[in-house]
Sequence to fold (117 residues):
Amino acid sequence: MLVNILDVVRIFLTTVDGLMNTRLSGDRIIYVETKDGRHINFRPNSFKKKLQDVVGEKADIKELMRYFRSLRWIVTNTEGKFSNIQRIQSRVMRVITVDGEVLEVLRELYDKKRNVS
Fold:
C-alpha cells in the first residue's frame, strides 16, 4: 500500500494537522492537549475518519495505525490497542494520543525534506 516512510510521515502529518485546524461550532477545537502540551488527544472516531479522508476509502487504516503505534507517534498503554484512557476536564475518555514532541520533530524533518527536494 505505502511506498516509503515519507508517505507514512505525510499521511500522519496531514491527518493530525487537518484535525488541529478543524473548528467546531463556537470556534471550539477538536483536540485537547494534556501533560503541558506533550500529548495531543483526539476522539478515535474523528482521528480515523480524518485518516480515511486523507488516504481514501481503499486504504487499510489498521495498517497505518499499526505503523503510527510501532513508531511511537501515538501513545498507547495497552499492547495491540490504538487508543488509551485519559482523564480530561474531570471526565474519563477514550482517546488517540499523539506525542507532541514527536509531532514537532516530524514536522521539522518533513519541512527540511520538502525544501531539499
Observations:
- The radius of gyration is 14 Å.
- The longest strand covers residues 91-99.
